[in-house]
Write a structure and sequence with these properties.
The chain contains seven helices and ten strands. It is of the alpha/beta class and 253 residues long. It binds adenosine-5'-triphosphate (ATP) and magnesium ion.
């Protein structure tokens, strides 16, 4: 039986030191955290605070210098590259700020692509890819290549590609950075639904406090350290109430 309250992401004394020439850069300084299954977590901090570094460690994209990372009960810190590739393929989805779409493929082909690694047949791949793209409001762009789409449309294709495999955990780096505020809020409400209804876990990096307020758990990071962990109380309401365009002081970056 799955223990739905068990933390699905655990970091213990996690450190990452990059070497730039002869100077060490401490990107993460002994970070410890636990994220329960079904949580929509936001990692918030200023530029250079270590958000992407933390996300990359938690998602098994980079190895920590010291400390432990446990995701879905697996010790990523002790995995080799092949084990990490297998782990990522089977357990996690990523939404990259830079989209990472394949330029020669259409939106449908990009979204269907990860399903090929799971042995899903072609017909079902296309059906699922279409459904994921429709969910992101891209039904009229199924056959467009990345260079035929706007930045926000490409970002939504990237989100659809993460959704299509139904991963238990999704790591998203500024997933709404190219979306207008209304589309961003719709997208964040979708992430919340996926967490509450399907017990998916989302870990989203953002530098935007307003966007972070949609999350169940807000992890603030500064200079490679966690400075606070808050759990905003949404009281079951549709959160947060959308202010008319241009009236929210928090909306500016
Ligand atoms: N590959 C690398 N080599 C050397 N230093 C790095 C590397 N990646 C990140 N850093 C440094 O680590 C620190 C944290 O970087 P990180 O990319 O995690 O910040 P961030 O919070 O994601 O910032 P942003 O909001 O600008 O994306 C920064 O000082 C950065 O210069
Ligand atoms: Mg970053």
């Amino acid at each position: 039986m799955v223990d739905t309250d068990a933390p699905v992401v655990v970091a213990r004394d996690l450190a990452k030191v990059y070497q730039v020439g002869s100077a060490p850069v401490v990107a993460l300084n002994r970070v410890s955290l636990e994220i329960p299954r079904g949580t929509f977590a936001a990692v918030v901090g200023t530029s250079g605070s270590g958000k992407s570094t933390l996300l990359n460690m938690l998602g098994g994209l980079e190895k920590p210098t010291a400390g432990e990372v446990w995701v879905a009960g697996q010790p990523l810190h002790s995995f080799g590259e092949d084990e990490l590739v297998k782990f990522r393929r089977e357990n996690v989805g990523f939404v990259f700020q830079s989209f990472n779409l394949i330029a020669s493929m259409t939106a449908m082909e990009n979204v269907a692509w990860p399903l090929a690694f799971q042995g899903v047949g072609k017909q079902e791949r296309l059906v699922r890819a279409r459904a994921a793209l429709m969910r992101m409001g891209l039904e009229s762009h199924l056959d467009h290549r990345p260079n035929q789409m706007s930045g926000g449309q490409q970002q939504r294709v990237g989100i659809a590609r993460a959704l299509v495999v139904n991963p238990s955990i999704v790591f998203a780096d500024e997933p709404t950075g190219n979306l207008d505020s209304r589309t961003a809020e719709t997208t964040l409400n979708l992430f919340r639904q996926l967490c509450t209804r399907y017990h998916q876990t989302w870990v989203m990096v953002t530098h935007d406090n307003h966007l972070a307020s949609f999350a169940d758990m807000v992890i603030r990071i500064s200079d490679g350290r966690i400075v606070s962990v808050e759990r905003p109380n949404h009281d079951g309401a549709a959160v947060p109430a959308a202010a008319p365009m241009g009236t929210s002081p928090d909306r500016s970056r």
